[in-house]
Amino acid sequence: MKSISIIIIVKNGEEFIERALKSSIWADEIIVLDSGSTDNTLEIAKKYTNNIHISNVWPGFGKQRQDAQKLSKSDWIFMLDADEEISVGLQKSIKEVISKKPKIYQVNRLSKAFGCEVKHSGWYPDWINRLYPNNLTTYNDALVHETLIIPENYKPKKIQGILHHETYTNMKDYYQKMSMYIDAWSTQNIEKKSGGLLKGILRGYWAFIKMFFLKLGFLDGSIGYTLALLRYETTVMKYVDLKIKKNRKKLI
Fold first, then answer.
1. Which stretches of 17-153 are assigned E, i.e. beta strand?
2. Taking the model in full, what pTM does it have?
3. DSSP for 79-106?
4. What tens digit of pLDDT does each residue of 10-42 get?
5. Burial of 94 (0-12, 13-18, 19+ CB in 10 A)
6. Which residue, among 9, 73, 18, 64, has the nearest Cα to 40 in the 3D structure?
7. CA 212 to chain centre
8. Phi/psi at 57 (nearest 5 deg)?
């Protein structure tokens, strides 16, 4: 049987990381790369693994995942977010495929927002590349919205089972996460895109229409409307923050 590492990068995840860790105890090793948690994240992680590492700098999501992968000596990697949980069915599928020919595998993620499962709104099905041979590939360098590098002419395979995801538990959680994503997105795109309030509003309206109508968010009821409205707001703020950063750069 080939060996597998489940890798978790985290900061201040005491409210949810235990579920991720419990769903990973079957793996050959669990690797946790922490980015300076000030809550009880590390104490919780120590109950499940001794393979805990601390990063003194934050290079962005892509490079942090690269650094975490370098800590593994296993044949396979499963990259697990701290607010995710591997279902029993997915665990079974993973065990089956890692004994076969090395390939990149996609898993289907089912997300919750504010306590409700989201079955539409472009959130589900949500096939993401998470299981792959350690020596085949890694993540790109993106600060945010990082992706696994897929070799040319290579098509990932899908496996059965659900990856459960707890996105936002409340509005405080949402705005804390979004402030980080907005900052990373605007920093990443300062030389690539133009910003501004008008552009943000136009992009925001399109984001709302796409999520609520085209992606059938209305079938998710009130939670679908809430998510579409938040998507509008976040999109506007991304372009406003980008404009602020560009103006500040001109003054330097």
1. 29-34, 52-54, 76-79, 84-86, 105-113, 116-117, 127-133
2. 0.94
3. E--TTEEE-HHHHHHHHHHTTSS---EE
4. 999 999 999 999 999 999 999 999 999 999 999
5. buried
6. 18
7. 22
8. -130, 160
